[in-house]
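debug: dumping io for the single-chain case to check the tokenizer round-trip. Nothing else runs in this session.
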Amino acid sequence: MGQSRRITMKDNWSGRLAPNLDDLEDMAQLAFARLPDTFRALCAEVVIRVTDFPTDEVLEELGAETPFDLLGLFQGVGLAQDGATAQTGQMPNMVFLYRRPILDYWAENEETLGDIITHVLVHEIGHHFGLSDQDMEEVEARAD
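debug: decoded output
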């Protein structure tokens, strides 16, 4: 485990704010751009959205105890299920990243915010492809 770095007044944390929705959206787009070309090409139709929290309906459907239980969610028809359902009125596949739970997780763990966003993004997009956890780890490791 790495050594903790001591915060000093010259670090000027007093003027910094938590990343807002637009900041996290930008970070998610940068994380997506760093993923392997073959992975990105296959999921070009996936829409990435950043919101503060999941909806009450999502929390209820997934049996989450608090809004902080979910960092992200894939909604739509994964490629593994594509063709198994009628295409009429189908909404685009979407990946939701939840800002407040991601920031809460970041505050409690020793990972960079960029690494967390990349991990959540790959994990949720991985559902789109029906990838295994090992496959998703490999995609994440190959991110530039």
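debug: round-trip ok. The first strand starts at residue 47 and ends at 51.
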